[in-house]
Every structure is written in structure tokens, then in C-alpha cells.
Amino acid sequence: MAPTGTIIDTFNINTSYSDQLQPDLAFNNQNYLVVWEDRRVVPSQIFYTIVTTNGMAQNDTGIKLSGNDSSDYYWSPATASNGDRYLIAWLGTRLSGDVILASRIDSGGTILDAMPISLTDDTLLRNRVSAASDGENFLVCWTGETPDTVGMDLYFRRISADGTILDSLPILVARNHWGIYEQSITYGGGCYFIVWNRDEDIYGCRILPDGTVLDSGGFVICADQGQQLDPAVASDGHRFLVTWTDGRSGNYDIYATFVDSAGSVGLEENNSATIINPMPVDILPVPFTNKINIKFNLPGQNNIELNIYDVFGRLVKSFTNPQSPSHNNNIIWDGTDSKDFALPNGTYFCRLRANSISVTKRIVKIKK
After folding, report:
1. Helical ranges in the chain per DSSP H
2. What are phi and psi of 209, to 5 degrees?
3. Do residues 209 and 351 share a domain?
């Protein structure tokens, strides 16, 4: 496809018989690697191929990656590139349980880890694998059960370019009694960003390259009425675009929003050269039911405006001259409009404007 969106051509990546499912791909600035679950053999295995930028597949029947034990069932592959090598991670189902495996592939398509790297034991139920790279190392995340808990939790481990596991144990990102599903991950702006579906709402979490979890448990991206499902995320190097399937209208539509690398949801307009830094506005709690505290500290600023907008961009509440002489403020919003009528549950945006700053943050109002 051309940059203008024009379709140039279509071509087969795999011409073998039977079913090929769950494709994923990565780009190393020269070629693509495409990986998939392949059912030409039973049980399913993981195959991949290199695809050039002019649409030529290195091997049009694919290269078998998994399959050390013919009784294992392999599925849910994911891949990422650090610009030099690729990493493919996938889920293996065994009689003793599920395991997360990974192998590195060089730029020419050669498997570097004939014996896959094992990221978990094989005693528990696992589900869906995702992968990303910070340009040096790789991060693989997955959902899985934990002993003595209920529901799917979200974990990750990092792998270096030379194949070393950097985290002694899987690191917990978020836990939920009803489960976490459909995660997607990317890297940009100095951090990894994972999004997922929890209770049919969309959540997100930032992770630094050293493995530090910045938003333990995750924060709400969308919790509007209806179902929000199957999120995906990409980065332009500074902020993230999150998309998802949304059922608020009674039909399933595609919605999207921006999240910056400071964790602000909605269009962020602060042009600071520092990508990861605290914004001058703190909003707690998110989501809220009755009241929410909007705190800010803007010494040396004047002409300050603090406005609340709905998802259609309509102004619903305005706080005039909210700055106190001490420059420390805590505005309490009770979820009402300018006429003090209670607003419905859903997503709103708080926008703080001053002489040199404009910050927009997302607010989610939920039922009691």
C-alpha cells in the first residue's frame, strides 16, 4: 500500500494447504517478518517467513519454528524487531499445562535459538502473547492464571538481544478477578505501552525499558456505556494511538483516542521536550462516582482556564480564575454541568489552559 493509502498489489505469503491463522508481523527497516499459527500438521505449529518491501516472500511455504515435541499445540504467535534481530514469542499447550516460548531470528531469517527460550513454567493456563522492542531489548507479555487466584492476570518478561532473560521472574502488570484479555503492546516516547480489555472496558499501563511498571494495575482509557473490546495500540514515537471495538451505539464501531507517554488520555497539547514527565494536573480518583479532585500548581502563570468537555467536545462546566494566590489548587467537580444538573456516566475531558501550557486529561464517571 502506498503512503497515500492506494493499494499497490496483493500477494500470497503462504501457499501451503490447510489453515493458517493468527498472523503477526514486524519490520526491521529492511524487510518484514510474518509469523502465524499453521494447521498443515496436527497439532498446530508456528511458521514464519521473511517478506521483502517489494512483496517477495523468502519462503512461500513458510519456515517451521516450533515443534520440539510433536504432541505440543502451539498458537498465539507474536513478533517484534529491535532493528537488527526479530523475536518471535508464542504459546505452547502441553499435557502438563501451558508455557510461553520465544526464539530470536536474524535479519536473514535464520533461527538463532534452536531450543526455544522458556519464559514460564508449564503448570498453569496461559492466553494470548504480545511482543515489542525498545530498539535494543524485547518485552513479551501474556495473560495467565496465578495459583490461588481467579481470572487471567497480565505479566511480562524482557529478553536481551543476545537471548538472555533479564527478569528473574515474570513481572505482574495488572490483576482482575474477572480476567484481563486481548492485550496489545508497542514502544514509543521512552516507554512500552500495553493496553487491554478488563470488564469490557479499555485499560493501559506504561513500562520503562528497565522493567519498571509506571501504572501498576493500569489506568482507564475508556469505560463508556456498552462494550469496549479488542484494543490495539501504535506509537508515533511521542504518543500512542489506541483503538478498540465499541458497542455504545448498539452497533459495533471503531473508536480511538491518544495517550501521551506521561499517561494523559486524550489529545495532549503540552509541547515540552521532556517526553516522560509529570503533567501539572493531577486528577483523582479515576474513575470517579460522586466527586473528583483536580489539583494543579502553576506558579508564574495567569489567564488560567479550567474547563470540562464531553466526548463530543461540548463545554459542560467551566471554572473561572481557578488559581489561588498560593498557586496550589484543588478543584472539586461533582459531575454536574453549568446548571448543576447531574451528567450521565461516561467519558469527559478536563482541559487546563494557561499562557504557555495546555493540558487535556481524561475523566471517567461511573455508576455507584
Report:
1. none
2. -55, -25
3. no
**Distant-in-sequence, close-in-space partners of 115: CB < 8 Å, separation ≥ 6:** 68
Whether residue 29 is found in the same domain as residue 76: yes
* Structural domain of 251: 20-271
> Is 360 within a domain?
yes
Q: What's the 3-state SS for 1-30? A: CCCCCCCCCCCCCCCCCCCEEEEEEEECCC
Find out whether 226 and 217 touch, Cβ atoms under 8 Å: no
In this structure, what CATH number is given to the domain that contains residue 298?
2.60.40.4070
Contact at 8 Å (CB) between 299 and 327? yes
Identify whether the C-beta of residue 157 lies closer than 8 Å to the C-beta of residue 106.
no
Q: What b-and-e string marks burial along 77-99, b requiring 16 or more CB atoms within 10 Å of the CB?
A: bbbbbbeebbbbbbbbbeeebbb
Identity of the amino acid at 243: T
User: pTM, whole model, 2 decimals?
Assistant: 0.74
- Look-up: residue for cell 510461553? 100
pLDDT tens, 61-100?
A: 899 997 656 568 899 999 999 999 999 999 988 777 789 9
Residues 117 and 52 occupy one common structural domain: yes
* 141 lies in the same domain as 262: yes
In the block, cell 493468527 appears at 22
Contacts of 103 (CB under 8 A, 6+ apart): 65, 87, 88, 111, 112, 113, 116, 117
- Summarised one tens digit per residue, pLDDT across range 213-235 is 998 888 888 887 889 999 999 99
* Shared domain check, 251 and 292: no
Q: What is the mean pLDDT of residues 178-199?
A: 92
- The set of cell numbers assigned to 198 is 478488563
